[in-house]
Amino acid sequence: MGDEASTLEAIAAMAAVTLACRCGGYFLFSRFTPSATVRRALAHMPGCIFAAYVMPALIAGPASNWAGAAATIAAMALSRNLGVSIGAGVATVWAVSLIA
Amino acid sequence: MTATIVFTRATFWRGARRSLPLVLGLAPFGFVTGLITQHHGLSLADCMLMNALVYAGAGQLVALANWTHPAPVLAAAFAAFVVNMRFALMGPVLAPWLAGLSPVKRYASLAILVDHTWAISVTDMRKGGRDVALFVGLSVPLWFGWLISTTVGFLCASTLDLPPHHPLFFGALAAFVALLVPLWRGRSDALPWVVAGGVSLFIAHLLPHTSWYIVAGALSGCLAGALKDSWNG
After folding, report:
1. C-beta separation of A48 from B218 below 8 A
2. pLDDT tens digits, A36-77
3. Cα separations (Å) of B6 from B2, B18, B65, B92, B140?
4. φ and ψ at B12, to 5 degrees?
5. Cβ within 8 Å of residue A91, ≥6 positions away
6. Which residues of A touch B229 (CB under 8 A)?
7. Which of A5, A52, A86 sits opposite B25 (nearest CB)?
8. Mutation target among B53, B170, B203 for the A interface, most CBs of A within 10 A
9. Chain-centre distance of CA B220, in angstroms?
10. For position B64, what pLDDT does the model report?
11. pTM for the complete prediction?
């Protein structure tokens, strides 16, 4: 079964690469001392990664996604609960798609 | 950080309890990932293996988008690399906490690193938290929860017939949008985030159907932030 063998190979390759990413970054930084600039840059990493991931998805998606994103942010700011926030976002997108 | 890092059982269980809304919140994302995996012709065993060993929804979805039979081994590995490269940048941010674990536990915890548990841990660390058990407690149940929700999504795929822009699919994006809120530290974050988002949009437009935009945007935003910090002294 050539297809199954190649699928398992692909999964193994993806797993190996992802593990290397997860552990490798930390490993490299533990061996080399980062400069002050690198440390300052890393402090900004969390928000920047999420902003970079989210923007193209919002721009490429339907307008209802913007309403959903606004609802998600508002719900998160008020409740600090991820499940509630995701629910609020999905419910808003659903409502907008029914109305629009 | 010069404070001693601890690992307490109480905080592990606190983390495990806090992971439950994450498990529930990410269930739609996992469900959708399982659905899409079935849609691309993989078997149930393949789906479970991929989600247990790769455990990276965003990277998996990008790899699956261009899946072929026989499987595109190099293309899938490359897609996983580009999307999951961000994990290499995330691990070092948690270095103060990870240093408090033995090497085996440290790399085992890193092996199941995901955006959401990392964001919550970073937020706690920034507030002065010193207990790395929070990160571990958050991470372990989420791995199990992900495995369950992706499997359920796979099994439901044949019975459900969701159109491409069904609201349920927004759950995946909502999970990332929601986590921007606790990461916001104030007006000083505005410039780096705008740069990150702007560069990301530009690169996504320049190189469609690839995921270079994530790392390009993130690094640009970080650079802008570092430069601004240096400028402000």
Report:
1. yes
2. 888 888 888 888 988 998 999 899 889 999 999 999 999 999
3. 12, 19, 42, 18, 18
4. -55, -45
5. A71, B167
6. 40
7. A86
8. B170
9. 19
10. 87
11. 0.79
